[in-house]
C-alpha cells in the first residue's frame, strides 16, 4: 500500500508515456480508487501515434484515424493534460507546463508539483544546416506529416498531368527521400507503390515518368536488419527503378533543386527528410544528468542516476543493456525497447511507492521487420532472414499484435481485408491543411499563405 498520496507526472504521450501510464493505472488500481495516488499525463496531442503504420497511412492503405490511439479513452483513470512541459526543476519537484489555454489566459505557464516524474517526451527530427531544407523539406514523424505527404505526392501528379511546362513537369515528378533507416525506406517504398498504381488513372503520367531517389550518407540502408538484408533492400528498390545513392549527402535544396554531394542536381518539388532523430529539447531544460548525446543517464531499473523519484525510458533515456557482452552498452532507442521498458517502468514506480524491490530491465533484441511496399519486405527474426512476401506478412502480423487496443486491431485488420478487394483511393485532400480558405475568400478576406512544412518535430 502507498503510505501517502503520490502525485505521478508522466511527460509525454508516446510509446513510453502511454504504456507507463497504462501500467500504472492497472498496478495502482486500488490506490487510485482510494485517492492515495493520482496520475497526470502531459502531452502535446490527445493521442498516441503508432509510427510503424505511418507509411501505410501515407500510402492510403490505412486510415490515419486508425494509426492513433485516443489517450483519454485508454487512460480513463489518469488526468490527461494537453500541453507541453518546457522545463523541469527536479530539486523543487516542479514542471513548467504550457497548455492550449496559456496564451488566452495571459497568466503565463503553469507549474505542476509532483512526487514522481516519468520523462518520456520522445525525440525530434535531427536536421542539418542544409540550404533550403527549412523552406522546402517535409518531415515524416507525425500522422499530420504522413497525411500532408500523401496529399503532396498526389498533388504533384496532378500538376504534372496539367502543365505544359516540361521543366515543371519533371520537377513535380521527382521525389527525393533523405535517410535510409526505417522511416525513409518504408515511406519511399509505400508511396512509390501508391504513385505507381495511381498513375494508371492518369492519361499522361506513367510510372516511367517519375523519378524516386533515396539518399543515404552511410554505405548501407536498414542497418537494423543486417548487412545481407540491407543489400537485398537496395537490390529490390533498384529493381523498381528507384535511384538509391549510398555514401551520398544532400547538400542543398534551395530554389527547389536538390544538390547531392556527388555533384548530381535534381529539380524537385519534394524533399522528404528522415535522416535520424535527436533527444527532445526538454531534456536540456532539466537539472537531471545527461550523456554527451543529450539523453538522460539511467540505471538498469530505469530511474535517473542520482535523482531519486525521477524515471525515464525510450528515446529520452540512456539505459544500460545488461544482456550485452560489451561493457557500457546501451539499449537502442527503438519501439521494441520502449514498449518493454514502459512495462518495467510502471511496475518499478509501483514497487517504489510500496517499498518493494525494483526489477532490472533486461531484454534481448528479438529482431527487425520492414515493409518495402505492397507484398514486399525484409525481416530478421531470431537469427532467421526472410525476404519478399513472407517478410511482408511478418511485418504486418508483428505490428498488428503490438498495436494497442482490440478496437484498433479490429479496424486495421478490416481495412487490410478490404484492400484485398478494392484499390487504394488516390484523392488529394490538400484543403485539409487550410479548411477555412474558401470561406475567408467568400467573406472578403485574403487567401491564407501556405503553412510551413513540418511544424512538429523540427528543430
UniProtKB/TrEMBL annotation:
Q: Which UniProt keywords apply?
A: FAD, Flavoprotein, NAD, Oxidoreductase
Instruction: Name a Pfam family for this protein.
Output: Pyr_redox_2
Location of region: Disordered: 438-459
Coiled coil located at which positions?
Answer: none
Q: Which residues form the FAD/NAD(P)-binding domain?
A: 7-338
Molecular function GO labels: NADH dehydrogenase activity
Top-rank taxon of the source lineage equals Bacteria
InterPro entries hit by this protein:
FAD/NAD-bd_sf, FAD/NAD-binding_dom, NDH-2
Q: Which family does it belong to?
A: Belongs to the NADH dehydrogenase family.
- This protein is called NADH dehydrogenase
Q: Which species expresses this protein natively?
A: Streptomyces cyaneogriseus subsp. noncyanogenus
Amino acid at each position: 500500500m502507498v503510505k501517502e498520496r503520490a502525485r505521478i507526472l508522466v511527460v509525454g504521450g508516446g510509446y513510453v508515456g502511454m504504456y507507463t501510464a497504462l501500467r500504472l493505472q492497472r498496478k495502482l488500481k486500488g490506490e487510485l480508487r482510494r485517492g492515495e495516488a493520482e496520475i497526470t499525463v502531459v502531452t502535446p496531442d490527445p493521442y498516441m501515434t503508432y509510427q510503424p503504420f505511418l507509411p501505410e497511412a501515407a500510402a492510403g492503405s490505412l486510415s490515419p484515424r486508425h494509426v492513433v490511439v485516443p489517450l483519454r479513452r485508454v487512460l480513463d483513470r489518469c488526468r490527461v493534460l494537453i500541453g507541453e512541459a518546457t522545463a523541469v526543476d527536479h530539486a523543487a519537484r516542479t514542471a513548467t507546463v504550457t497548455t492550449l489555454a496559456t496564451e488566452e489566459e495571459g497568466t503565463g505557464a503553469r507549474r505542476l508539483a509532483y512526487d514522481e516524474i516519468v520523462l518520456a517526451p520522445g525525440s525530434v527530427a535531427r536536421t542539418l544546416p542544409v540550404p533550403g531544407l527549412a523552406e522546402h523539406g517535409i518531415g515524416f514523424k507525425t500522422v499530420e506529416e504522413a497525411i500532408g505527404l500523401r496529399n503532396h505526392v498526389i498533388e504533384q501528379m496532378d500538376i504534372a498531368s496539367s502543365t505544359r511546362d516540361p521543366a515543371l513537369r519533371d520537377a513535380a515528378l521527382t521525389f527525393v527521400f533523405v535517410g535510409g533507416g526505417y522511416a525513409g525506406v518504408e515511406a519511399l517504398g509505400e508511396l512509390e507503390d501508391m504513385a505507381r498504381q495511381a498513375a494508371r488513372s492518369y492519361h499522361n503520367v506513367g510510372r516511367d515518368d517519375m523519378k524516386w531517389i533515396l539518399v543515404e550518407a552511410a554505405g548501407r540502408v536498414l542497418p537494423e536488419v543486417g548487412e545481407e538484408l540491407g543489400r537485398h533492400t537496395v537490390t529490390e528498390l533498384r529493381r523498381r527503378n528507384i535511384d538509391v545513392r549510398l555514401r551520398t549527402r544532400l547538400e542543398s535544396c534551395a530554389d527547389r533543386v536538390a544538390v547531392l554531394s556527388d555533384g548530381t542536381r535534381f529539380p524537385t518539388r519534394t524533399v522528404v527528410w528522415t535522416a535520424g532523430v535527436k533527444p527532445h529539447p526538454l531534456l536540456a531544460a532539466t537539472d537531471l544528468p545527461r550523456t554527451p548525446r543529450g539523453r538522460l543517464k539511467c540505471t538498469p531499473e530505469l530511474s535517473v542516476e542520482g535523482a531519486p523519484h525521477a524515471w525515464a525510458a525510450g528515446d529520452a533515456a540512456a539505459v544500460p543493456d545488461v544482456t550485452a557482452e560489451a561493457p557500457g552498452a546501451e539499449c537502442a532507442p527503438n519501439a521494441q525497447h520502449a514498449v518493454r521498458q514502459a512495462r518495467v517502468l510502471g511496475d518499478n514506480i509501483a514497487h517504489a511507492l510500496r517499498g518493494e524491490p525494483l526489477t532490472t530491465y533486461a531484454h534481448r533484441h528479438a529482431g527487425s521487420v520492414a515493409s518495402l511496399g505492397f507484398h514486399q519486405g525484409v525481416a530478421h527474426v531470431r537469427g532467421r532472414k526472410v525476404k519478399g512476401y513472407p517478410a511482408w506478412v511478418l511485418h504486418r502480423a508483428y505490428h498488428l499484435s503490438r498495436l494497442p487496443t482490440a478496437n484498433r486491431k479490429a479496424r486495421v485488420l478490416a481495412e487490410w481485408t478490404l484492400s484485398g478487394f478494392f484499390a487504394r483511393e488516390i484523392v488529394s485532400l490538400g484543403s485539409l491543411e487550410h479548411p477555412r480558405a474558401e470561406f475567408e475568400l467568400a467573406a472578403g478576406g485574403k487567401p491564407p499563405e501556405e503553412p510551413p512544412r513540418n511544424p512538429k518535430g523540427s528543430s
